[in-house]
Every structure is written in structure tokens, then in C-alpha cells.
Amino acid sequence: MELEKIVKFLKEAGTYYLATVEGDQPRVRPFGTVNEFEGKLYIQTGKSKEVSKQLHINPKAEICAFKDGVWLRIACTLVEDDNVEARKSMLDAYPQLRGMYSENDGNTEVFYMKDAVATFSSFTAAPEIIEF
Q: What is the pTM of this model?
């Protein structure tokens, strides 16, 4: 149930920001893909992108999204899942990506969140922390 709350928030926010590290320089970019598969929370990118290269060197990341006066931050380790079914599930959830990606194209990759700590915050309520 707690994971569902996180997925719902991210999907309704539409855009979240993913922070990675490149050497000693933080890198942040907008993302929109989030999918629950086999009880894990996934994001998707392409292996040719810099974000993929950064995550393979240092898989620690943080996500931030904002909606209706509430923000969600998720600190986690992103783990690549090379299971074709995980890639297919993501692309089935976002069919508009199929013009650029395929589960068998050698470029599409999905990462699931491990050792994740999600924090819902606002200026009007105490933080709510969910670990998954």
C-alpha cells in the first residue's frame, strides 16, 4: 500500500527530477517514467544516455517531485534489471515511448529502487517517511 502511494504521487506529478553524480558534480534532469513491477519501483532510460553511464559508475540517486504543495524525495540505489519482462512492463505502461524504445533494442534499460527512503514533506505537516 505504501509503494502504491509513492507510484500514484509520481504518476500524478507527471515529471520528477532525478539527481545523479558525475565525479564530484551533481547532475539533475527531468524524468517521467515510473512503473511498479513485481513489487519493485522502476524507472527507465537509454543505455546511450549520460544518466545511464553515471548510474553504472555510482548507482546512488535521488528523485524529487512536487504536487499540490507536497514534495516527495526518494533517496535510493538504482539497480539495473536486465529482465526483458521488466523492460516490456515499463514500455507497456508508457506506449508513447515505443517510437524510441523497444524491450529488445539493446538500448532500453530499467532500474529498480533498492534501499529506498521516500519522504513526503510540506510546510503544513510533519514529514512522512516510507522505506522500501
A: 0.95
Domains belonging to the chain, first-starting first, are 2-131 (2.30.110.10)
Tens digits of residue pLDDT in 68-127: 999 999 999 999 999 999 999 999 999 999 999 999 999 999 999 999 999 999 999 999
Other residues' Cβ atoms within 10 Å of the Cβ of residue 56: 13
Q: Are 72 and 6 in contact (CB under 8 A)?
A: yes
Whole-angstrom CA distances from 36 to 11, 20, 23, 95, 100 are 11, 21, 30, 15, 21
CA distance 113 to 16: 15
